Amino acid sequence: MINTKKTLIIFTTSILCLSLAILSDGQGNPFLLQLDRWEMLLPSIGISAMHMQVLHNGMVIMFDRTDFGISNISLAGGMCRYDPSDTAVKFDCSAHSVLYDVVSNTFRPLNVQTDTWCSSGAVLPNGTLVQTGGYNDGERAARMFTPCGYTQRCDWIEFPQYLAQRRWYATNQILPDGRIIVVGGRRQFNFEIFPRPDSRSRGSRFEFLRETSDGSNENNLYPFLHLLPDGNLFVFANTRSIVFDYKKNRIVKEFPEIPGGDPRNYPSSGSSILLPLDETKNTNIEPEIMVCGGAPKGGFSYVKSRRGFMPATSTCGRLKLSNPNPSWEMETMPLPRVMGDMLLLPTADVIILNGAGAGTAGWENARDPVTRPVIYHPFDRRFSIMSTPSRPRMYHSSAVLLPDGRVLVGGSNPHVYYNFTNVEYPTDLSLEAYYPPYLSFTFDLIRPKILTSDKVVSYKRSFNVNFSTPQFLTVDLLSVRILAPSFTTHSFAMNQRMVILKLLSVERDQLTNSYRVNALGPSTAEIAPPGYYMLFLVHAGVPSSGAWVHIE
């Protein structure tokens, strides 16, 4: 028998340790004391990590923009880039993209030729990153990076005029058939599909984006996109949101505006997340969207007219799309925040980090860095302020979840060019890791460890994961989850999604003192588009390190 009295005593003791760690910051807000921590990984990676994508081979690709000036890392082999249209330097022998090896904590330069400033991306089912748009000579570029071993010297392949329209501040979403939809961009009230169906395709009009533009303030750039279980898209721009049938180019449903009238998209720059999709219940999945933070209405104009920096928004809205009459349920964050990054954690909690307490996105547009992360617990709707402050991460910072459960954080450059001296928030080239409380040794006794796993998970088919725990297992507290890695930039983690899978059985191997869990793959490609996912086992709220699986 797996559960014993001793098991329950140890488990209860572990939970008690966590409970005792929940204290107050003196203002009535809870935070977890001494369970979370920051680690400086590298003081400089040579560039400021404006964009990040975790790849399925354990690497993270990062890049900023080619017209920031000369970076602090040279291109390999004496290579140089000549660009007569570059606004900073025409002849540049420095790199503006790097490949980071998580295991060895090392990096190497990559050669990107066209300008990636404020671009977007998504990963194809085969693991290749497709990166689209940017500025100047990069505005119609499509770039591809296919992962390889760290020493194999794979690099960017670029197609400078591939896109049908200019894409600067656009958003990408992987689709159920493995294609990518690219939506919006500055003065682009349309969308297109990658790969293009033919060379004559010019994309499709999307008037919703024109309707949600605040003139020169815009406030609808980097629209929030989430693929829904029915195959349609949830689109949020400014204060409005819809369910959009991209195949027929029609709005299926429009929701009430988020209360308060404050815009949430760039440059007001809140963030959004699709809460975990739960396949363990014998009912239809009920998708729920969360939108948090941003700048108040008029905040961008207020900064540009040099009147000061308006305090950031402190509200979050949750919208359950399947309700007969959906309406936003509003909550208040303990720390107001603009330009924050929202990421799903393996525990199904949401971490909010980076950003500022006043101002908006844009050059020199924000003040009061918010250095403490906040973790939101969707089940009981509770916020916890984390105890350890980090360094300021302002405009052009980013964050991604790593398979080992840490959060990788980098970037911050609120200046037109690289600027390291005599400014309030210097360009930051460093790379940090944040360790959420669940990585504390306090929980090692109940932490599952994946030993082996099926590498391929098929829709509606069972698969196996072999694992161990140091002391005991409580089966009722075990779950299996897959999490798609995000392309993160400008406060939005594109393509991020979690699916909680149905657990079929758990068996114990007495000889090896290990376990085998049998689980059911996701039901459809609309719930989990094909591609690489991080698979986690979560036991009593404590996650394993992730294992890569391919959904197909």
UniProtKB/TrEMBL annotation:
Entries under CDD domains matching the protein: E_set_GO_C
Domain Glyoxal oxidase N-terminal: 50-438
Pfam family, any one: Glyoxal_oxid_N
Gene3D superfamilies: Galactose oxidase/kelch, beta-propeller, Immunoglobulins
Keywords noted in UniProt: Signal
Signal sequence residues: 1-28
Ranges where the Galactose oxidase-like Early set domain occurs: 447-551
Entry annotated with the keyword Signal: yes
PANTHER family assigned: GLYOXAL OXIDASE-RELATED PROTEIN, SECRETED PROTEIN-RELATED
Protein name according to UniProt: Aldehyde oxidase GLOX
Organism: Cardamine amara subsp. amara
